[in-house]
Amino acid sequence: MISNLTKNLIELERDKVLSEIKERLNQSEDPMKIFEESKQGMELIGERYQRKEYFLAELMLSGELFKEIMELIEPYLGEEKTEGNNKGKIILATIQGDIHDLGKNILASLLKLEGFEVYDLGVDVNPDFVVEKVKEIQPDFLGFSSLLTITFDPMKEVIDKLEKEGIRDKLKIMVGGGITTPLVKDYIGADFQTIDAMEGIQYCLETIKARVKIGAQGGI
Ligand code: B12
């Protein structure tokens, strides 16, 4: 069963989609529910593209429409946690060859809301640049957003280089994005994989909490 919103999004009915979202937000509906229905629409658009019922033009339109959806939803997601952005530092990147950024951008917004310090390196990022930034920023987490299979090798390259530099174990590495699986995590050598931003945030929060506990017990 798909919702009316998902159906209109798949059909790229921009005006219907945006007016329904405005109305539901006005009625104080949970913005994450609206987000999930929109995300499902994007997955189904991808399937139409794969079946050759949609082409690049439709993918592009869906990308633009999703951006407009996020602009409506984001102000309703909550206030940034203000007690100093001290939950931890995270670098995000979509690696070389891949320009998909909608999922990465929502993850970045949600992490900021949770109080993380986010360094978003953008899209189509050179693997050596990621390694440089890890050395410079010394983050607690590195998150790759991956929507194309051609990104697996360059992500693995980054992790291999971090290993060679002896700094791999100083941070936790996550990989996410609609096409990723646990196998991808194992192949590139990451610590965690998900196709759900909220699960990623949960992982970061739990990791930080566990570290604080070990520290309190004199383990660090
Ligand atoms: C919109 C879209 C585009 C837009 C992107 C616009 C943009 N600014 O991002 C445009 C039109 C540019 C595009 C281009 C292409 N696309 Co495209 N695209 C899509 C589509 C339909 C939706 C992606 C999306 O934004 N989903 C919504 C977001 C919110 O979901 P998400 O990214 O999964 O993110 C969520 C989670 O995964 C998680 N998450 C994401 N990243 C991370 C990272 C971490 C660390 C964590 C913890 C969590 C996390 O958080 C988000 C919220 O929960 C997908 C279909 C699909 N099934 O995903 C195809 C898809 C990804 N595209 C595809 C293809 C083939 C292409 C093109 C090659 C097409 C072409 N012939 O040119 C080009 C590639 C361009 C390039 N070099 O990158 C294929 C990829 C196939 C593959 N296996 O490699 C897909 C899967 C379509 C398909 N089924 O064939 N695309």
Summarize the topology.
Layout: H1 4-10, H2 14-26, H3 31-50, H4 56-73, E1 89-93, H5 102-114, E2 117-120, H6 127-137, E3 141-145, H7 152-164, E4 172-176, H8 182-188, E5 192-194, H9 197-216
Parallel strand pairs: 1-2, 1-3, 3-4, 4-5
The structure holds cobalamin (B12).
Structural overview:
55% of the residues lie in helices and 10% in strands. The chain is built from nine helices and five strands, in the order H-H-H-H-E-H-E-H-E-H-E-H-E-H. The chain has a five-stranded parallel sheet with strand order 2-1-3-4-5, with helices on both faces. The chain starts with a helix and ends with a helix. The mean pLDDT is 94.
Output the keywords.
single chain; 220 residues; alpha/beta; Methyltransferase, Methionine Synthase (B12-binding Domains), Chain A, domain 1; Rossmann fold; 2 domains; five-stranded parallel sheet; 9 helices; binds cobalamin
User: What spatial form do the alpha-carbon principal axes imply?
Assistant: globular
Question: What is the second-level CATH architecture of the largest domain?
Answer: 3-Layer(aba) Sandwich
Radius of gyration: 18 Å
What are the secondary-structure elements, in order, as H or E?
Answer: HHHHEHEHEHEHEH
Largest sheet features: 5 strands, parallel
